[in-house]
């Protein structure tokens, strides 16, 4: 008789609960590492379920800690799970899980910010960028201090189609502080609209799946947690280098309450600021009195395209940094003052 899908389904054998594991291995949360554990099995299963169909998937879990979400992933009929954990104290507990799921769980003691995942999974899972996403998924409940820099790094990887996106349009399901989750999905005109909204939305389809109340974690963080799902787009909405987009977006949002021309002006040296800002806005066909939160991704596309042309015409423009110019100006002012004090006339 042919084996049915159901008969092949893998389930972990009965194991001590996560609470018991924490006790057994003396895994008190370390405040400096912002460790907050999710003990509610239904919520862990919900995160994994919302990540999509994981049957035969290769999954990369970042920050497994005592292994709660890890268990839910292992029960989702995956092909293989790779976990990267920085804190050595969690390794024996994870090893126990690995023994309970032979050949399915690979444990790396390392740092997600530096771990190179692009060679971790077999070649056959790779898909062309234009095709459907590969059966590779990233899932993680990381400390907030890591998840924001990590998503910026991964968004740059999306733009370069490298790192975890060397496999194709790898999907990600990650937790963030609720306010950050709201910024990631904020639409044009909304009060949470920020640098992160543009950087995420020009490269990915971003969805705030659900919110977990802070009280569901042990120890309880000060804030609620948002679970966010990312699917890289086949075509980025802005087709310019990531660093260039980042520079334009950062400059605009540094004066988020002012008209957008204020932040855009900072892209140009003071001597030609007025003239070049006017040129940029005119060629991009943008109203200078729009506020940053009212700029759509398409507005940013126009701005980045024109700014790129201006950088091509003046190769020094891209490296210009208004803060450096300001520091130099202050230093010169100070030197002048010193000279005047030392003058014997
Ligand atoms: C918020 S806890 C979550 C633990 C577990 N996934 C859960 O949901 O209960 C974050 C975990 O990420 C780990 N971690 C923090 N920074 C990390 C890094 N840079 N690389 C890998 N793991 C990290 C912590 O040690 C901790 O186990």
Automatic annotation (TrEMBL):
SMART domains: rADc (SM00650)
Pfam families on file: RrnaAD
One BP term from GO: transcription initiation at mitochondrial promoter
Binding-site residues for S-adenosyl-L-methionine, renumbered to this chain: 36, 38, 63, 85, 111, 141
UniProt-listed Gene3D superfamilies: Ribosomal RNA adenine dimethylase-like, domain 2, Vaccinia Virus protein VP39
EC top class, as a word: transferase
Annotated family: Belongs to the class I-like SAM-binding methyltransferase superfamily. rRNA adenine N(6)-methyltransferase family. KsgA subfamily.
PANTHER family: DIMETHYLADENOSINE TRANSFERASE, DIMETHYLADENOSINE TRANSFERASE 1, MITOCHONDRIAL
Protein name as catalogued: rRNA adenine N(6)-methyltransferase
């Amino acid at each position: 008789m042919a084996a049915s899908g159901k008969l092949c389904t893998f389930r972990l054998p009965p194991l001590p609960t996560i609470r018991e594991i924490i006790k057994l291995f003396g895994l008190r949360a370390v405040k400096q590492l912002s460790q907050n554990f999710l003990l509610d099995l239904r919520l862990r299963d919900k995160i994994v379920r919302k990540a999509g169909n994981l049957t035969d998937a290769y999954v990369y879990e970042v920050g497994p800690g005592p292994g709660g979400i890890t268990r839910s992933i292992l029960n989702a009929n995956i092909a293989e799970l790779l976990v990267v954990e920085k804190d050595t104290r969690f390794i024996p507990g994870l090893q126990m899980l690995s023994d309970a799921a032979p050949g399915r769980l690979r444990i790396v003691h390392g740092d997600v910010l530096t771990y190179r995942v692009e060679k971790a999974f077999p070649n056959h899972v790779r898909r062309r960028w234009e095709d459907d996403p590969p059966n590779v998924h990233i899932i993680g409940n990381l400390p907030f201090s890591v998840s924001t820099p990590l998503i910026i790094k991964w968004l740059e990887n999306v733009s370069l189609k490298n790192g975890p996106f060397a496999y194709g349009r790898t999907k990600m399901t990650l937790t963030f502080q609720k306010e950050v989750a709201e910024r990631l999905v904020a639409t044009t005109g909304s009060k949470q609209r920020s640098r992160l909204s543009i950087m995420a939305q020009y490269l990915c389809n971003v969805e705030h799946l659900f919110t977990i109340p802070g009280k569901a974690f042990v120890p309880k963080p000060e804030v609620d947690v948002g679970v966010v799902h990312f699917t890289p787009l086949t075509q980025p909405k802005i087709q310019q280098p990531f660093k260039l987009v980042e520079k334009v977006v950062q400059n605009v949002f540094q004066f988020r309450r002012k008209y957008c021309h204020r932040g855009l002006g900072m892209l140009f040296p003071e001597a030609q600021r007025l003239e070049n800002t006017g040129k940029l806005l005119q060629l991009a066909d943008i109203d200078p009195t729009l506020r940053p939160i009212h700029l759509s991704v398409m507005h940013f596309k126009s701005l980045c395209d024109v700014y790129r042309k201006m950088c091509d015409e003046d190769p020094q423009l891209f490296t210009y940094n208004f803060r450096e110019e300001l520091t130099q100006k202050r230093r010169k002012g100070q030197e002048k003052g010193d000279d005047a004090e030392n003058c014997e006339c």
